[in-house]
Write a structure and sequence with these properties.
The chain is of the alpha+beta class. 39% of the residues lie in helices and 19% in strands. The chain has helices spanning 4-11, 59-72, 77-81, 85-91, 100-121; strands at 24-30, 35-44, 47-56. The protein is globular, with a radius of gyration of 14 Å.
Length: 145
């Protein structure tokens, strides 16, 4: 049911924790459903030099968070903005359809942290003009294993 990569990132998640003096912090999720993802970014000269996450949720949510941090670490803000939920799922060698919302949560967490960074630094990031950090990505019913 789950790929080896999903299991690996669930059992040995990368970049877990928080960054005390983070330049951008994004929190997304839904307490009703149980998946809550918080991402911390350290950005220098437009490059994400460090990223950490804390996720409360199922194994797929943890694996998606872990993979998302790996995909954006060392990348520019523009490159990080191009990371989609599909890219996260593909990097994990796929997620079951009922768990695709977890990769969407990871994409939203990246955007929420970049949105926070943009707000704090009074800059605009292309692609975040209409981003709503409070939007609920769980607009459908699903169940957790």
């Amino acid at each position: 049911m789950y790929s080896e990569k999903v299991m690996d990132h669930f059992m040995n998640p990368r970049n877990v924790g928080e960054i005390q003096d983070a330049d951008g912090i994004g929190e997304v999720g839904n307490a009703r459903c149980g998946d809550i993802m918080k991402m911390y970014l350290k950005i220098e000269d437009g490059v994400i030099v460090d990223v950490k996450f804390k996720t409360f949720g199922c194994g797929s949510a943890i694996a998606s968070s872990s993979m998302a941090t790996e995909l954006i670490k060392g990348k520019t803000i523009e490159e990080a903005m191009e990371v989609t939920n599909k890219a996260v799922a593909e990097a994990l060698d796929g997620l079951p359809p009922i768990k695709m919302h977890c990769s969407l949560l990871a994409e939203q967490a990246i955007k929420a942290a970049l949105y926070d960074y943009a707000k704090k630094n009074n800059i605009e990031i292309k692609g975040l003009e209409n981003f709503d950090p409070q939007a609920d990505v769980h607009d459908h019913d699903h169940e957790h294993a």
